[in-house]
Design goal:
298 residues, 12 helices
Amino acid sequence: MLSAVLLALGGACAFAVSTVVQHRTATDSAVTDGGRWLVRLARRPVWLAAQVAGGIGVALHAAALRSGPVALVQPLLAAGLVIALGLGAWADRRHGRLDPRQWRAALAVVVGLASFLLAARPSAGAATAPGAGMAVVAGGALLVAGGAALWTRPPRRPQRALVRGVSAGVCFGVTGLLLKQLLGVPLLSWSAAGTAAELAAVAVAGIALSQAAFAAGPLVASLPVTTVLEPAIGVLLAGPLFGESLLTGTGPRLGQLAGAVLLGAGLVALSRRAAVATEHAEVAAFERRSAHPAMAAS
């Protein structure tokens, strides 16, 4: 289990670096490139470097899933939240640093997840899940992604970054389950091919929505809910799909409840601070649009 913990934490660090760089690049592209920002992102070396960091995170994530259960690995990835927020604050010093309340809220999210994990002590389950069940889960994630994309398409929709972050978190949570499934099935089989196709579709949807969330608001507006939902979906579905179980009894259940409450409180606090950060970001975006007359005219 120790190897799974170390690999998951390494993956969290890689994902944090990738997330911060992607957010900065997506935000700049959304301002200067107009409606074609998503296409032009793929032509930017910095964004491609962020994808390399993300690829390293995926490799470490896969190795961790091979060594440990989903309910252990997925929550540990939330450690990247505090790392990403710190890197984001350092990288975007011109808009000020995260205030102490945001730091406390971010730490509450991570401590809540850690408390839940220690109280839950998830057990290892089966190496693979039923193919039909995985297909239903993958289809559900794609439906959530499609609905979020359609609902947030109008520019004046409220909480666009939050809604996109929610759908990205759902997709990333299901991606972890599909990745574990792919590692367990025979490499050269129809099951592997079908799982790989599902994994690719859900992962692409999650990445696209996360980029759209980054472009729609500050990092803190979408990253917390994405980071929380990813392990939550994994823990929730690992039991019925892979047969993983959490520790039972009054003490463990109370510990799991306390961790979940702390996690929720941290998320609420981050969401409230995100409203203020979003207002500041909108002012900054307006100022940058004013500096580009051609874009303002479009």
